Amino acid sequence: MKIIRFVIPLLITSSLIYFLSNSLSLGGSSIPPLGHFLNPFEGFWQNAESTENENVEETIYLDGALDNVEIVFDKNHVPHIFAQNDHDLYLAQGYVIAKLRLWQLEFQTHAAAGRISELIGENGIRFDRLQRRKGMVFGASKSLEAMKSDPEIFKIIASYAQGVNLYINSLDYKDLPIEYKLLNYSPETWTPLKTALIQQYMIDNLTGWDCDLENTNALQVFGEENFNFLFPEWVEGIEPVVPSDTTWAFEPSPTSVISQPIAIAGVTPSTIEMPDPDNGSNNWAVSGKKTKSGKPMLANDMHLGLNLPSLWVVMQLNAPGVNVIGNTFTGSPGIVQGFNSSVAWAFTNSPRDVRDWYNITFKNQSKNEYLYDSAWKSTTKVIEEIKVKNGSTYIDTVTYTHHGPVVYDNSFMSTSSSENNYSLRWIGHEPSRLINALYILNRARSHEDYKKALTFWDAPAQNIAFVSGDGEIAITAQGRFPLKSKGQGKFLMDGSNPAHEWQGYIPMEHNAYQYNPKREFVSSANQHAVDSRYPYYFYNGSNEYYRNRRINALLDSLNNITVEDFMTMQQDTYSIKAQEVLPLFLDSLYQTSLSDNEKRFVQKLSEWNYYYSANLDTPILFELWWTNFKNILWDEFDRTDLVLLQPNDFNTTHIIKNYPNHKFIDVAETPELENLTQIINGSFKLAIENMVKWEDQNDSETTWANYKGTGITHLARIPAFSKSNVQTGGNGNTINAMKSNWGPSQRLIVEMTDPPTAWFVYAGGQSGNPGSPYYDNYIDKWRDGQYMELILMPSSESHQDQLKNKITIQPK
Fold it and tell me: Are 348 and 450 in contact (CB under 8 A)?
């Protein structure tokens, strides 16, 4: 593809033009030294790659390697690493990851640590302050200590770091990724702390959302009875990960009852930025009794932000005692999600409230002491020096209580009318041993190995599905969960009251678990892990209610399942929400008052099959109708003086179907008393107006794909390195859970044949270099529901017809 040599420099040039004209897209960063940057022998032109470099063999000599390592790249640019010991295996993994994704590798640690201002200037200060106030490095340091306490685990982390640094030290300016040149900085030495920060980055992404302060506001505004009606913990019709017929064969740990679970201390005007509450996934597994081959099968698609480079890199790791393949995080040794010859495993987020806020009473403005158990307790101060590119260092003082860091205070998230001092208690501040768990999973041979690995899995909590070549299937809602009494942590708590402390942790052996169930499948999609019969208090404000029921219905109905069936399921865009809401809406319309144009849309909606297909316009109208309906119905929540969340879609539907005359079925801002039918009709007319307005403002065809506008955005928000308006169907509540910049970041299907067969795709490409043909080459396949075979090679000499490049590492 010789054209690559001309197109890629043009692409980079267009990015440069945009960058120079719109420096704020990179936070106001300074222009790089143009002579260096534009030099054809070492500047950005050197980042262009082509497929002409394929089918080559290369030998490199590395200090620290103990023996020869062979790395073969297959036709999809997947590296298969073959080493003769663990040290060389993880050294080579670090080296290859750095070679593929160096800038991303380091940028994520800068983001996790609150060091973005060093790269982009003063526009990064607020983000950096928040990261430091959340205690990101504080938590990562705790995990690093846990890693150091296990010599075998720390050895592989150190080997990985050594591999990354060997690659970094081999680079000249011309070899640096384009982002370093654009932002005018150089990579740092990789350290084990950076691996802990990558881990912290994911813990924050998957557990960093809560609604405690919004709940507290709603409780004060609406009262306890109304709050419980609007935000119930359990609603009829949920299907938990572990079904209700489970018998809990254990005696639960006792908890103390809290008489005052909240601290009423005024309202909170606004809350800190948090990850998308929809961050989650789908996974399911079926036994051989339901498959055509008679072998168990597993599927997984993990829903996260859609970014370039992708979060994921696919690779194989082979050494004595381990031969595993799948998705890995940039910056962390081992395979996160994948399979070996004996077992396969997959993840979805298991939502649980593992972040709590405590109202702190300081003795005075010095914040040196705070009230606890009727006495004054000393705080700890951490002076955070935020270095700012082309600016003065910003000094922020973060106060720590025994609960955790004080995130909200008079210098951060406070207003002239309100001073809030809120300390954060978070599972992310506890030491994590995820790498121990993954080390065992990578080498697992049995269900017992899976159970052993899970004893180390603490955060982020995950529903971990499992299949084995022996025919077993299982799923566990696994994590380290705080032990709480009913209602504890649902609202802002009193930081001075010892009774409000976490009461320990639920024993991991009491976590919800299912093994070889009678229905012959297990599944999860971020719904409730359990139902109300589970003997421990369970709460989360972001449980999923639709995808899980669709998955279960399909799996229940399917037999003689094939890989193609699983592929079809992962692409499924059927909406149970639309199925449950739209008939009621249509039945409530005043048919005689509709215009001809409105009747035309009603006819379309009446004929719609509830699939969010990319080429349809009907899903646009339904979504506009539903959004307008909720905004009118819940106008009480539209406040500028405090932050509130609307009731979720599932409970909104439950209320309008079962309580159509409830006092909340009204428009609060009008003196008249509106009924449900009036709100449905009014919101329909608004939806038509919104749709016409969108059509007038957009030249593109009126389709769901164009309206939704799914984009895959470069991590530094560089438009020329991003992919816009990817033509996809789906919606956040369908199995193919696609939103504008969020969705199934990867897809994997494994069938436990001998050897296992597997198929994968993700929203990106293996290379982090925008000038590489492997930067985004998977996206079209991902968009179109296509997959590539993922081959677990027994040796570097097998599957020669699939291989492209080969690197041999030899000791120096």
Answer: no
- pLDDT by 10-residue block (mean), the chain, 812 residues: 40 43 43 53 56 79 97 97 98 98 97 97 97 98 97 98 98 95 95 98 96 95 95 93 82 84 76 94 98 98 96 97 96 97 98 96 96 98 97 98 97 75 97 97 98 98 98 98 95 94 96 96 97 93 96 98 98 98 97 92 97 98 98 94 96 96 84 89 96 94 97 94 97 97 97 98 97 96 98 93 93 94
Dihedral, 414, 420, 425, 426 alpha carbons, nearest 10? -30
Nearest alpha-carbon partner for 466 in 512, 521, 508 = 521
Backbone angles phi, psi at 524, to 5 degrees: -160, 155
Phi, psi dihedral angles at 259 (to 5 degrees): -80, -30
Contact 476, 513 (CB under 8 A): yes
Q: Is the pTM of this model over 0.85?
A: yes
In order, the DSSP letters of 345-397 are EEEEE-----EEEEE--BSSTT-SEEEETTEEEE-EEEEEEE--TTSPPEEEE
The helix or strand, by DSSP H or E, that contains position 803, with its residue range, turns out to be strand 803-811
Q: How far is CA 2 from the centre of its chain?
A: 37
Alpha-carbon distance 580 to 574, whole Å?
12
What single letter denotes the amino acid at residue 727? Q
Pairing between strand 369-372 and 375-378? antiparallel
Q: Identify the helix (H) or strand (E) that includes residue 743.
A: strand 742-751
For residue 61, give the nearest of 168, 156, 170 by alpha carbon.
170
Per-residue pLDDT tens for 375-422?
999 999 999 999 999 999 999 999 999 999 999 999 999 765 567 899
What is the amino acid identity at position 206? L
Coil vs helix vs strand at 724: coil
Q: Calculate the average pLDDT of the chain.
A: 92
Residue type at 126?
A: R
Q: Angle of helix 676-697 relative to helix 576-587, nearest 10 degrees?
A: 110
Compute the distance between CA of residue 345 and CA of residue 467 in angstroms, rounded to an integer. Answer: 7
- Concatenating the DSSP letter of every residue in 19-72 gives HHH-GGGGTTPPPP-HHHHH-TTTSGGGG---GGG-S-EEEEEETT--S-EEEE
Asked whether 352 and 358 are in contact (CB, 8 A), the reply is no
Longest Cα–Cα distance of the chain, Å, equals 85
Q: Domain ranges in the chain?
A: 576-610+617-702
